């Protein structure tokens, strides 16, 4: 299978006082180009740790992450592909919106990833690009000069998404991207992410508690239980015909 990013046998253990927490315990899966892979499971089962390992924030204790079939996490990692993953990936966290620099304008916030990559051109073209990104996320040029404090939670998350899109990412790691938003705004942001994914065709790891959201947005789903990936499958197959006893239990706890 030609995966954009793949985890093979990754493990991440944390020592907490005298205990070893097996946060991720021998997990393997891949995300194809243009695919949305949803990761579900109870609190503490290891979803965020996996998101951090795939994005390179954590180095797994063992196992390997591959980007375009080249190792990017272990001893034999290939610098060229580590760099490509870094440049082609964006992360949208639960609190991305809250973490926007309160002193910066929306224009500067959205441009920052290009600044970091030394890809700014000239002021008017750059501004045009920002406006384009804002419009993609349902905002307008009126927002250019605003600061995060002047925006609602939903608008801030739109700005965070616009900021991710400006580098034309091939991969978005979304870790609970709607969890901190009001219920009424969550659907809008999920619809936006789904539309953008269909337009831009980036691959996505989508981590969420909410199974109905995962079902709506994902092509494939992985179910985690205590650090292990206990079942993966195409979304509708998995939801309609879960195989494992844990998946059955998890799905029966909700009404979809
Ligand atoms: N830096 C750390 N140090 C110690 N333990 C950690 C660390 N990060 C995570 N853990 C533990 O590893 C386990 C998995 O955590 P993780 O955050 O990956 O789960 P999760 O499924 O994302 O949970 P949630 O849905 O609550 O975010 C938990 O028991 C957590 O307490």
From TrEMBL:
Cited InterPro entries: AAA+_ATPase, ABC_transp_ATP-bind, ABC_transporter-like_ATP-bd, ABC_transporter-like_CS, P-loop_NTPase
One matching Pfam family: ABC_tran
Entries under Gene3D superfamilies matching the protein: P-loop containing nucleotide triphosphate hydrolases
Keywords for the protein's UniProt record, in alphabetical order: ATP-binding, Nucleotide-binding, Transport
Secretion signal, residue range per the UniProt entry: none
Stretches assigned to the ABC transporter domain: 5-251
BP GO annotations: transmembrane transport
Domain of life: Bacteria
GO molecular-function terms, A-Z: ATP binding; ATP hydrolysis activity
Sequence similarity: Belongs to the ABC transporter superfamily.
Protein's UniProt name: Oligopeptide transport system ATP-binding protein
Organism of provenance: Acetitomaculum ruminis DSM 5522
